[in-house]
Design a protein that fits this description.
There is one protein chain. By secondary structure, the chain is mainly α. The protein has one domain (6-80). Helices cover 51% and strands 7% of the residues. The chain contains five helices and two strands; from the N terminus they run ββααααα. The chain has helices spanning 27-40, 43-49, 52-58, 66-75, 77-80; strands at residues 6-8, 21-23. It has a two-stranded antiparallel sheet. The protein is globular. The termini are far apart.
Length: 83
């Protein structure tokens, strides 16, 4: 089951700030969770926090390191065609 509502990210995905609880119903929080999970999370985190349809609709707005964006676009060709 995919995470929804308020979530607390694991330490390995977000350790820098005291705020580790995010509300996936809030667009800003959801974007930050996606950025953190795609960059720092593991496969289990991706399965739990990332919804592919939301990822596709948010793809161009996400702030991701180039290597992360390229890796995801290589794995999922539909992301590379999103403008």
């Amino acid at each position: 089951m995919k995470a929804q509502g308020k979530v607390e990210l694991p330490v390995h995905a977000w350790w820098s700030e005291p705020k580790r609880v995010f509300d996936l119903c809030k667009p800003g929080d959801r974007m930050r969770v996606y950025e953190l999970v795609l960059t720092e999370g593991d496969e289990d985190d991706v399965r739990l926090y990332i919804r592919f349809n939301v990822l596709c609709s948010s793809w161009q707005q996400l702030f991701l390191p180039r290597h992360v964006r390229e890796a995801w676009e290589t794995k999922f060709q539909q992301l590379s065609s999103i403008n």
